[in-house]
Amino acid sequence: MTAVKPQDRQQAAPQRAGVGERMRDWVAAGGLKDRTVLLLVLIVVLVVAMTILDAVGVTRAEFNSDYLASSLIAYVPLALLGIAQLFVITSGRGGIDLSVGSMVSLAGIVFAMLFQQTGLPMVVSIVLAVLFGALLGAFNGFLSAYLGFPPLITTLATFYGYRSIALVVSDQKPISGPEISEFYNAAKAIELPLIGQTLPLVPLGVFTFLLPVAVLAWFVLNRTAYGRSLYAIGTNDTAAQWAGIDTRRTRMTAFVTAGAISGFVGVYTVAQFASARPDAGTSGGGMALPAITIAVLGGVAITGGIGRLSGVLLAALLIVWLNASILIVVPGNDGAQAQLLALGLVLLGAALFGQLSLRRRRAAGAPTTVVPVVRSP
Amino acid sequence: MSVDTAPERAPEPAAAPQVSLRRILPPVVTGQEIVLLVVVVVLWVLLGIFTPAFLTTGSIGPLLVQVAPIALVGVGMTFVIITAGIDVSVAAMIMVSAVVTARMMVGLDIPAPLAVLVAIAIGLALGMINGLLIAYGRVHPIIITFGTANVFQWLGLRVFDSSTVNGIPGTLDFLGRGDPGRTLGVPHSFAIAVVAVAVAWWFLRYAKAGRSLYAIGGNQNAARLAGIKVQPRLVWVYAVTGALAGLAACMMIATGTSTLDQSVGSGKELQVIAAVVIGGTSIIGGRGSVVGTLLGAILVQTVVSGVTQLGWPTQLGFLFVGIFIVIAVGTDLIRERARRRA
């Protein structure tokens, strides 16, 4: 739950005055249909059900806080790329980024080359890898925002292009070495200082990679003019233009952000695997499809203009813990396959449920305001 | 007055349909298709000059065999994209059809026609699930098909049961790349794809149901108000795409070895979408042609095979696929802008 804390705090803070009354207002306004609440309920149901199964003795390994915490190592890249999709999809006009997996691979290779083969200091290499990711994203953004390419097409093309470059540049061999092996420590589990005794071991990557990006993304989306512009262009591009927003630059920046985050994930995968794999982000089904799934599950509207960071973070958490749960209930290969089924069914269920409640609200004549309401601080 | 106006007004009703028909139907061959054809011919000539082995039947034949499943599924995908939709589950549908059919061929030794029917029926059923969820759930097609792709993949992997399907008999060899798969040097599978493209071309251009797909893609609400039954049409479009994926699965079984592994179909969804958009079909919907898709599929496969034959890294081919997508869509955008200005 550590990664979700900033969200909880944010939601809890304004409720101090007249909690009961506020709760009643909130329920009356359809708060229970809120995606974050739905996801929270699903997570709680999952944990309770698994605890019961564990007590009955159905699970093959112990289901406890240590297990949940250690599974967070897969949470970091998934949540980060979910945030990347949040920016791009929210920008509207068919915004979507199929190329994140390829950018992860390519930025990871570039990072390893700079860090291992050129011998640059770690921090410099990381910054350059993130900037390189931003550059890749800028190409996506330039084609989509300024030249008018549909983002699905742009990022399909760059998915092929970046993946191909990553494989050719690295000669299809992973890059590894002593420096990178040491870098592995950046992702492994640690005990927190001070409170470490009572809490389970949490992968360090959650604090070094996910937390800074999540806090920054939350701030940008909810507390800056840029964030407001992003929701505005996603809701109605023409209206936003007449309101004086530079829609093209705003949309381009969303793609640049997605690229930078992908670059950061590229660095993370190097730490996670202790080597830079040229297919890190594209092997198997690739990283883009799960990331889009996470974003949609988290309540990001594929048509743009709607989407909250809390939803994405919770959706990623639900999927990661669901996957971890399936692994200890369903043995071996069947477990890995059942994860596919679970992901598909959860996505379909969430999308159809969301559409149903939206239509009901519309039928009842309620406004379907899509931009999240920001409470004044 | 009335005497003057009558002769003027009279010819109008007769002339009107002619004019509007010409306006509705695009030219028989569009600019994009001519450009694509030229690019393919130029590429073939260049490859022929640099690698003499390229322009032989031993090289072109297998190339066309590989084009066939992409072009075939591309026909369905063109329908889908014309209605402003998309289907990213085709790879998973190919996998399910392929593994079930292969298992039945091994276990029951079913004859070829039955194998093809089984594959098509499975694809049709899976496609219909897509169609029903998209048409009546009213969720964006990309989300639905992402979801069903995962579910279908699980289904396929269950049938694989953590191993490969071994000892597949040569029942479907008439679709393969060997001698039984050719008549007068023309691969059967490619001929089937061309026939499918021809039928689809006629259907999209002259059939009422075909024209309605463009209407749905152009403006779904307007199409409904014009009396088109949008939902049943959409179900049908996704079902056809599934059925074609089933037929493509037969070709993939036939072109492979006697062993079918779990990677069958993997990555095909993006190759098919690439072929369709290179062929000039607008991803926004309402515009597109199947002839372009066939040429797009040939172009994609030519680039991928050509790079290998030149002795360059295989992976470099996909960089060129990406570049071709950007060029094809870019020129289309420029022409679209010019059209709007005119």
From TrEMBL, chain A:
InterPro entries cross-referenced by the UniProt entry: ABC_transp_permease (IPR001851)
Keyword Magnesium among record annotations: no
GO cellular component terms attached to this protein's record: plasma membrane
TM helices/strands, residue ranges: 36-56, 68-89, 95-115, 122-149, 201-221, 254-275, 287-305, 312-330, 336-354
Membrane topology, record value: Multi-pass membrane protein
Pfam name, any one: BPD_transp_2
Subcellular location: Cell membrane
UniProt GO MF annotations: transmembrane transporter activity
The keyword Transmembrane helix belongs to this UniProt entry's keyword annotation: yes
Keyword entries, A-Z: Cell inner membrane, Cell membrane, Membrane, Transmembrane, Transmembrane helix, Transport
Primary subcellular site in the record, as a coarse category: membrane
Protein name per its UniProtKB record: Autoinducer 2 import system permease protein LsrD
UniProtKB/TrEMBL annotation, chain B:
Membrane-crossing residue ranges in chain numbering: 34-55, 67-100, 112-136, 184-204, 235-260, 312-334
Cellular location(s): Cell membrane
Pfam families: BPD_transp_2
Topology relative to the membrane: Multi-pass membrane protein
Coiled-coil blocks: none
Domain of life, source organism: Bacteria
Single GO MF annotation: transmembrane transporter activity
Protein name (Swiss-Prot/TrEMBL): Ribose ABC transporter permease
Annotated organism of origin: Agrococcus baldri
Gene encoding the protein: rbsC
